[in-house]
Automatic annotation (TrEMBL):
Organism: Polarella glacialis
Domain called Helicase ATP-binding: residue spans: 147-335
Keywords, ordered alphabetically: ATP-binding, Helicase, Hydrolase, Nucleotide-binding
Top-rank taxon, per record: Eukaryota
Full protein name: RNA helicase
Amino acid sequence: MSESEKRNAKQNQKKKALSKEGKADGQSIQLVALQLLASIGTDPDDPEGNLDLKVTIAVAAKVAASPGHPNINQSQLSGMGLRLVLPEGTERKMCKGYERVNVPAAPAFDALKTNVKYIYTTELPKWAQVAFKGTEKLNAIQSIVFNAAFGRSQNLLICAPTGAGKTNIAVLCILRLIGQHMDAAGGLGKDFKVIYMAPMKALVAEVAEKFGQRLGPLGVVVAELTGDMNLSKKELESVHVIVTVPEKWDVMTRNSAAGGGLSDDGMQKLVQLIIIDEVHLLNDDRGAVIETVVARSLRYQETSGQPCRLVALSATLPNYADVADFLRVEGENLFYFDSSYRPIPLDTSFLGITETNRMKQMAKLTELTYDVVVEQVRSGHQVMVFVHSRGDTFKTAQAMSQIAQEHNDAGKFDMRSHPQYGHWLKEVQKSRNRQVAMLYEIGMGMHHAGMLRADRSLTEKMFLAGVIPVLCCTATLAWGVNLPARSVVIKGTSIFDSSVGGYKDLGILDVQQIFGRAGRPGFDTKGHATLITSHDKLNNYLKLLLHQMPIESKFLENMANSLNAEI
């Protein structure tokens, strides 16, 4: 037998061993895969070791489950710490002036194969069913987590895709606490507080409104607390659920003078549940604040003996076990769900522009944006194009309209045949913003925070009615109103940051939120998201969005400030 045949036989033997290991119970599969890669070594035709090895492994839905972490629902291997591992079916090719990477949607989660027992809302106590009015049953993720969220009071970490219904898990945790403080007559005292930390002020208002509507009938008082919305001492004493941002809660608990006259200790001893939304912000510049808040809470529990439950909600991330250790979450209370659990399958495309000349790069950026947009519009879908300055919303729409005329595609954006076109034309003509009227006539819209509320609302309604196929907007829209869009496009990833006086990369949290706008539940059965960036940033965004970039601590950079606050 030749050396080549021996090597092939050895590889086949190891593949069979790996498959057998996966079929047995799915344990330690990542370790087995790494051992396989290490033992195979390099290929003679690929001396640098860049061999793209594809191994098909028959495994159960809980691929990476282990005795220590039984609730890991992962259908694909991850490549954290290694070279970039692209999902099966990914196409990567060089085109003129850019590189294109098309990542197909993950295979849809199959509830039958994993024997998920759905929880119907009628199984909840009668008083708790009010919070789920209009909902027949919890979805798969919520049903799997139900016992841990509503049946126990231990710390929780939930890693799941955007739009998977993590907010309902937070509601279940709050309902458990409410049940513990509800008297026989159904009344609630003021002897407990819930802190819900959202990453953005725009989300704070949205969450506070939703919680108020759902929990209000139970007598729960919900209030938002941000730099724009302060609470008096009396209001702080009467409120049950405080929705805030990490920075504000940090200030509230770091000194005894804060809190409208309430002492640090007086506030903290009433807090029995802290919910941290988007905890993967730990990897952001703001991550140090979350670490400080968590450390302060854990320290207070140790010194005072007052229990406080920590519940963290996150997008999918590779080193979930590290984050769980930091939050003191036991293995059985760590729940990980990969992208196959996303309610609407999402195809993603990443375009990396290879042009280095600034002017040529900007021209290519607009050209590629138009190519993606016109392809979707041809198919009868609406598109949201996200840009990074208010002025660029109008400029981008104008530029795409000009390209459409040059390519004889203007008719594809013409919506005059739409039955509601005349009605909305009259509404647009009432607007003082001439740009809105101008864009409406060419089948486009614009949306940014600098517009009057009436004009923003008008644009949202027209897009919702389907008379505008293309909407150019800033990232703020991704955090607000839920608009239907089969496709979203991020035009460039460089944004100006006035605090540093220069440009920085678009944050992963914004990218995930924007991608979450594609194919929203209740509107579409499928979504498509495209990110256009420079070629040198392409692999970085691929790693971040394919969840192969581990979360790392940012505390060291801000340690001096945090220590001073505690002294």
